[in-house]
What does this fold into?
Amino acid sequence: MSDNFIPITNLPSQCLPYEGINPGDIKARSYQGNEEEYLSQINPLNLETNYLEVMKRVIQGIDPERLTLGDRLYIIVWECINSYTDIIRIKTICTHCLKEVEISIDLKQLEVIKLPDSFKEPYPVPLPSGKKVELRLLTVGDEIKIEKFQQKHPESVQSYRYARSIVSEEDVIKRLEEYKKMGTKDTATIRAFHEKFYHGPEMSSTFECPKCGREDDVDIPFRLDLLFPDGEVLTSTFGKEL
It folds into this structure.
């Protein structure tokens, strides 16, 4: 446990979306017991707000609400490695022998996908309808607002999410109304922007099946024990010598 903040020099965004902030400006430290008070209470309904409080404590050099979602996921994995463990165990089905297996994943070995050096915001996007829009990546601040919006308007949350990424002087509700009136080729193009510029840890891995010996691929699901290990995950990692 340490109060020392160290530079996070490998952020997937390369700090390209953050005006005035360069790689090396952003620093982090591992969790301490105080952060576990927030981490232990995280559930799918309060994930955004609770983890924001944690990031405010463990991140320096940038307002955590400005972080892109790819950078946040990178920091979540970084914190898991440095605060708890770099090895996680998941269960999956081998597609060759069709048997359930438990495998170990080394988080340090995950590929990190970065934004291209040429990326700039706002990003001009021509739509199939002939219109042009400027888009930006979604941030932690957006996720906080999306979480609140979803509580009142769950039927419109997807449209609201992508409307927030449109750069415009109009307020977000006006952008939402316009997004809903777009043709699906236009909305698909906007969604494709976010897929194309995904950045962050590649949450997948290759493993050798312990039962048939063949190689297979597995997606690594986002689990709350990445934030706060407990139960079997806790005892298998930290209870071996007890």
User: Anything to note?
Assistant: The first helix runs from residue 33 to 39.
